[in-house]
Amino acid sequence: MEELHPAGMGRINVDSKRLINCAAVDVNQLMPIKYQWAWEHYQNGCANHWMPSEVAMTKDIEIWRSDKLTEDERQVLVRNLGFFSTAESLVGNNLVLAIFKHVTNAECRQYLLRQAFEEAVHTHTFLYVVESLGLDEGEVFNMYHEVPVIREKDELEMQLTAEVLDPNFSTEGFEGTQAFLKNLIGYYLIMEGIFFYTGFVMVLSFHRRNLMTGIGEQFQYILRDETIHLNFGVDLINGIKAENPEVWTPEFQQEIVDRVKHAVELEIRYAEDALPRGILGLNGDLFRDYVQHIADRRLERIGLEKQYGSPNPFPWMSETMDLSKEKNFFETRVTEYQTGGTLSWD
Questions:
Q1: Which one from 35, 42, 111, 128 is the annotated catalytic residue?
Q2: What confidence tens digit (pLDDT) does each residue in 72-112 have?
Q3: Who's near 17: CB < 8 A, 6+ residues apart?
Q4: Distance of alpha carbon 220 from alpha carbon 133, whole angstroms
Q5: Which of 31, 112, 136, 186 has the fewest other C-beta atoms within 10 Å?
Q6: What pTM was computed for the model?
Q7: Alpha-carbon gap, residue 52 to 261, rounded angstroms
Q8: Among 256, 228, 261, 227, which Cα is nearest to 241's?
Q9: Treating both helix axes as pointing N-terminal to C-terminal, what angle do 71-94 and 196-208 enclose, rounded to 10 degrees?
Q10: Is 128 a catalytic residue?
Q11: Record: fold of 2-325
């Protein structure tokens, strides 16, 4: 299949398009689209457009200033704001400084531009919440320095970024492709697919009890965004694997499994630190099962065997992601925005 280049520079063969290591990427030539899944993810992201400042925080402020929340409940909220504020920045930096540079396909780059904007919106969200509640900004935004369980998770991700940000790094060749895959798996599968979901459960547990509903509504939007991010990342990882099968060696697969298992233990420690005594019907044991359960699902989606076989203690999370079931969710939304009700979730 061929089409004329828009600048009259010849024809583009769709078969010549590759996810990485493709010739000239100076022009993001979308047509002809080869990877339809990337374009669909871009459209799904656009359908979920939102801004945090449109969500009312009046009730949250009233509850925060009252005695309705225990100190343990307050810690859960602040801990998660502290983690997410740093993690979203790390993801955004990795997208802009590392992934976009090395992904040579136009439709994937189109989605990455959309995702980068969404990461900025998420960072805006945490600032909006912190300012609304009158929290100590220094305490929240410096937690990655001061709270060991947050620092450990962030350091794991920064190790992956450092390798790809090396000025001499290239995805060409066996080692380069493997290193890039490690980065993608670390950020999409681990950071956004495992590390984020524990926090979603904690914060949305307040929302289920009709507490901190403004924060809960914003986290529902973020969860929708992150679900699309994860789906795109899995497709990108599997696509690079299919185009470069020689790098998916048994040794590399074991390295990925070991990295995911290490991440699972970090996330369990994070949950135990945030919930030292258990609140909202949540405790460390439940989160051990949950983190292991979602880790198995992530591994299976990139063709690796599950490692735990743990049950899902929070089945309500699936309903939370299917927001078409939340009948009141969009009542306060600006009507011209799309609700994304046609989206399907994994």
A1: 128
A2: 999 999 999 999 998 888 899 888 999 999 998 989 999 99
A3: 34, 35, 105, 106
A4: 19
A5: 136
A6: 0.86
A7: 34
A8: 256
A9: 140
A10: yes
A11: Ribonucleotide Reductase, subunit A (1.10.620)
